[in-house]
Amino acid sequence: MIALVMAVLLIALIAVRVPVSFAILGAGLAGLALQLSVGAGLGVLEAIPVGSVQSLSLSAIPLFILMAHLMLMSGMMDSLFNAGRTMFGRIPGGTGIASTAAGVGFAAISGSSTAAAATLAETTSKRMIDEGYRPTTATGIVASVGTLGGMIPPSIILVFYAVTAETSVGDMIVAGLVPGLIIAAALLAAMLLPALRDPSRMPRGERSSWLTKIKAVLEALPIAVVFLAVVGLIYFGIVTPTESAAIGCLVAALLVAIRGRMTGTGLVDAVVDSVKSSAMIFAIVIAAHVFGYAFAQTKVAASMVTWIEGLPVPPIAIMLALLVMYIVLGFFMDQVAIIALTVPIVLPLVETIGYDVIWFGVFVVLMGEIGLISPPLGLNVFVVARATGRDTVEVFRGAAPYAVAMVIVAIAFILWPDVVTWLPDSR
């Protein structure tokens, strides 16, 4: 009964637009007060915050966020899109392909889905519309590709999951690469397949000479340097994720300086924005630990796992039920909140039915990405709509086919989990 009260209170607080961290914290404190006492709840609040954010692995998160802001300062997104457009622009759908490639490249240096969507919208959506793409296609693909920032390493969300699940941050970061590329391919297919019926949906762009192509690719090469500095060093075990994040910040800062974009105001803004984003994430971490402690006292999680284990259904059926649950949660909550609230409860069940903790991290992040382009709270859709001046409903409609493609990929990961884990297993 107390667990139900906590859940209802949490949903109610979120519904009235209370910030997620305070909604989670309020529901957790209410649960503690009902089970123990108000004094005991305040005692937990005194003890948990410091311990919940003392993990060394969490220090990688603000560093990756700062690296993303520095890469935005460098203007590399323009170079990345230009390289893709010169390479693929002349073929049907070339600018759309370039937008997808730019999204993959930016995801590899930002780790933030929202930042990727906002930057892509300003850089590519308007260009696609000018070239004759339907606005739903131009905005929908950008909102969807922007979600790859949560999957392709270095991903802030994957780091957060690893800390929450108490697993290897390095393995978790590396694990996102192959699934991220598979998702990108699925999004590309969802964009290009309608052109088989109506070629006008995929206009041709401008033809570029080989010299122009080579020059554009060379200008975008520094992104590969940043990616190798971060992910490559982690994969080969040369540095820890936190050390690689610090190296990434240094390389990104050098790139900003070399390109002549380093200013005092810009640097201060990057640091301040990084602190704000980090504070939001850490606030959710603290609140989730309080909520998790209160929920654990109800013994509901253990009982639920035991009950589900006894059901006469195969593991795949359970995972498909979880898929539906996460899709619904994505309608109302962001990725950080979903991971913080559900992973401590659901992970023991997932491991019991035979799925790997690393695999589950990729699965949960993918489901969170679907939520970023699903109504009513699809954050990437609102970001793209604001950046392009298009109607939000129009962008939601444009993103729908890509959300379906991502659900299909999630089902494929359930059926063939080794696809997700083979890269970290090869370390």
UniProtKB/TrEMBL annotation:
Organism of this sequence: Nocardia neocaledoniensis
Residue ranges of every copy of the TRAP C4-dicarboxylate transport system permease DctM subunit domain listed in the record: 8-417
Transmembrane intervals: 27-45, 57-77, 97-120, 141-161, 173-196, 217-238, 244-262, 274-296, 316-345, 357-379, 399-423
Listed name of the protein: Tripartite ATP-independent transporter DctM subunit
Record keywords, A-Z: Cell inner membrane, Cell membrane, Membrane, Transmembrane, Transmembrane helix
Coiled-coil portions: none
Pfam families: DctM (PF06808)
NCBIfam families: dctM
